[in-house]
Amino acid sequence: MARSDVKLIGAWASPFVMRPRIALNLKSVPYEFLQETFGSKSELLLKSNPVHKKIPVLLHGDKPVCESNIIVEYIDDTWSSSGPSMLPSDPYDRAMARFWAAYIDEKWFVALKSFLKAGGEEEKKAVIAQLEEGNAFLEKAFIDCSKGKPFFNGDNIGYLDIALGCFLAWLRVTELAVSHKILDEAKTPSLSKWAENFCNDPAVKPVMPETAKLAEFAKKIFPKPQA
Description:
By secondary structure, this protein is of the alpha+beta class. Helices cover 54% and strands 7% of the residues. α4 (91-117) runs antiparallel to α5, α4 (91-117) runs parallel beside α7 and α7 packs across α9.
């Protein structure tokens, strides 16, 4: 597959765009990264994703694929012969990976975002409690899914690893902004070790945003929390 046949419309700071970028790296698929400008939507994006009008969009030849987790599955299926599968072979394990990926997007990341917007101390405490409950759920999910291996997917990064790992840079930025350790080694030791392994993987390192650069970007899109 020629490089020009695979393109990804996205933005460097988006955790959702990180998902297909990691998946493409894991499958050793060369691609062209078409960066969108923050605050605007290109004609190509609007044409490629007229329903949601948002990134990421994978362009495979003349076929657009939208929604980050769907794109990851598409990459896994399309380049199935290149690298390990990103979804477990067992139907139940596969269902659990999809369940927790949905939980991360619908509950856990929503709480993480609200932390950056939290105003008073009481609001912050409520968000911390919500995140700590979520982390406890994910700690147990990791132990169950990994079966003693380094990643949710076992020996190699997979679908659920990507679903959660794409948020780690934003997690660091949030910890700095609120001066609170959200991913605590004492409370979630397995998840903390997983995060370290994930960030050090050669498929992840090149696309993981630098914390300082991301923190500066965050100031543009999130109002400063009140003291």
